[in-house]
Design a protein that fits this description.
Length: about 90
């Protein structure tokens, strides 16, 4: 099963985000796939693969800035997200 979550951490306490990540891992261990649209850096760091769109919002965005592993995103010079993963 493919699960798609849009900003699932909105309004959650830090401890609840950890529970959410544990739930994601349990779904993955059961063989499911997950797509998460998210701005929370803790969630981004836990991802297997990141697709970063931008470089800005609105008319200044919509371009593929980065696609790859979170560790490699940290090295991206084009990504505003990378600045917050350091």
């Amino acid at each position: 099963i493919l699960f798609i979550f849009d900003e699932p951490t909105t309004g959650l306490h830090f401890h609840d985000i950890n529970k959410l990540l544990a739930s994601f891992n349990a779904l993955i261990e059961q063989g499911h796939s997950i797509i998460v649209i998210e701005h929370n850096t803790d969630v981004i760091r836990c991802a297997d693969w990141v697709i970063d769109l931008g470089p800005e919002a609105g008319d200044g965005g919509g371009e593929l800035v980065f696609a790859g592993k979170p560790a490699d995103l940290k090295k991206s010079k084009q990504s505003h997200t990378a600045e917050y993963l350091l």
